[in-house]
Amino acid sequence: MKLIVVSDGARAARSFDVAAGAVIALLLGAALMLLAAVYGGLGVGDARRAADPPDLQLLRADIERQDGELRALRSSADDHINALALRMGELNAHVIRLNALGTRLTGMADLEDGEFDFANAPALGGPVDAEPGSPGTAAGRLPDLLAEISTMETALDAQRQQLTALEGLLLDRKISDRAYPRGRPVKAGWLSSYFGKRADPLSGKSSWHRGVDFAGQHGDPVIAVSDGVVSFAGDRSGYGNLVEIRHGNGYVTRYAHNQENLVAVGDTVQQGQTIALLGSTGRSTGPHVHFEVHRNGQAVDPAKYVRSR
């Protein structure tokens, strides 16, 4: 191979005869020198990093640790938010149930809408003030918010217990009202004899009448004046066919001279239910029902209970 060299200072070019193997060796040597320079630079970078001051290495490690903690906090915050959303849903369900209970209690107590209006939110207002001794944003932090929700849940539970107790009291009052004798023991008829001293209709002698009489037609319905349980149903001397009902609160009512009793001992009866058919059995001068009211074992004038309807 002939190699020609041209120089600016020379007037003529020079030529040399070079073997082809020498040229190839020269090119390979140049390539090796280039690779050595590249890897040498990388080694210098690693050596330079290894030679960093200890404080810089600690700073890098602290940054990596804080980055891991930040990722963990983000994951924990997501879990807390999901739990918060679930708790808010449960509290909302509690509020709906309490509103339904309050509405039912309002209806049971025959209260007017107003203070006990559970259908609408109460009217509230006032300026927004930060809690004394705390920063303005403290209440907005997630732990504080969870604590407030826990407090709200406790208050709602106490309110539920109070409303349940109130419902029980109202139900007791309603049951007591239904156990209180009121109204006439017949659907049709007229008052034919009053409570107290009178002339006996059979002997004409002065006697004490322990009830009131309602005259009517044979077979007319005889009705219970209050809810209760039948404590006697059968024939009794002087009364003929008699039905006796215990109502609670010390009240007992009696319905006598029936043509036929339609209930038996132990039966539960409702106010207005037909318990017998009007007749004239026993010591009687004609079809009527002899009606008595007993309070704590003592016969009392039924007139006020009849009028209380």
Brief digest:
It is built from four helices and 14 strands. It has 309 residues and is of the alpha+beta class. α2 (54-108) packs parallel to α3 (142-179).
Description of the molecule:
- The structure is a single chain.
- With 309 residues, this protein is an alpha+beta fold.
- The chain has 3 domains: 2-50; 66-117 and 139-179, no CATH class; 190-307, Glucose Permease (Domain IIA) (Distorted Sandwich).
- It contains 4 helices and 14 strands.
- Helix 2 packs parallel to helix 3 (142-179).
- It is rod-shaped.
- Mean pLDDT is 75; it is low at 135-140.
The CATH homologous superfamily of the largest domain is termed: Glucose Permease (Domain IIA)
The CATH topology of the largest domain is what? Answer: Glucose Permease (Domain IIA)
Quickly give the CATH architecture of the largest domain.
Distorted Sandwich
- CA(first)-CA(last) distance: 139 Å
The level of helicity is 40-55%
Specify the structural class.
Answer: alpha+beta
Question: Hey, roughly how much beta strand do the residues contain?
Answer: 15-25%
Average pLDDT works out at 75
Gyration radius, rounded: 52 Å
What's the helix-strand series? EEHHHEEEEEEEEEEEEH
Q: Into how many domains do the coordinates divide? A: 3
Uncertain segments of ≥5 residues (pLDDT<50)? Answer: 135-140
The main pleated sheet reads as:
10 strands, antiparallel
Tally of contiguous helical segments: 4
What is the β-strand count?
14
